[in-house]
């Protein structure tokens, strides 16, 4: 059995589980883990989103909610901020995809957003 599941993320609609939890759950159904590895690191894009959220006080990935703790953006300022944010994301996402094979080789699996688990049915 091959299982691809979320091991990292946040949000009201996101339900990640730690790799050991996925493994325990599936092994409870008469399987044995053969191996697992991380998938989808996207570190450059995740770093950009983190920095944008930190600098502009963004909530999640929704740029519409751009607010600074000490300053409320005007509608025009907010619109410009959103456009710049998404233009930069159009760069960071393809760059992240391009670097993904290298990230998979050098990064620990726990840094990935998803994991691929390979199980064998117990005989």
Q: Give the overall shape, derived from the CA principal axes.
A: elongated
What is the spatial order of strands in the main beta sheet? Answer: 1-3-2
> How many strands appear in the DSSP assignment?
3
Provide the β-strand percentage band. 15-25%
Structural domains: how many: 2
Radius of gyration: 19 Å
In helices, the fraction of residues equals: 40-55%
How many helices in DSSP terms? 3
How far do the termini sit from each other? 14 Å
Series of secondary-structure elements, N-terminal to C-terminal: EHEHHE
Oligomer designation: single chain
Biggest sheet statistics = 3 strands, antiparallel
* Unreliable runs: 63-70
How confident overall, as mean pLDDT? 86
Tell me the structural class: alpha+beta
3D architecture notes:
The protein is α+β, with helices and mostly antiparallel strands and 123 residues long. 45% of the residues lie in helices and 18% in strands. It has two domains: 56 residues, no CATH class; 62 residues, no CATH class. The longest helix has 32 residues. It is elongated, with a radius of gyration of 19 Å.
Question: What is the gist of this entry?
Answer:
The chain is α+β, with helices and mostly antiparallel strands and 123 residues long. It contains 3 helices and 3 strands, in the order βαβααβ.
Features:
single chain, 123 residues, alpha+beta, 2 domains, 3-stranded antiparallel sheet, 45% helix
Write the layout of secondary structure elements.
Blueprint: E1 2-6, H1 19-27, E2 31-39, H2 43-56, H3 75-106, E3 114-121
Antiparallel strand pairs: 1-3, 2-3
Helix pairs in contact: 2-3
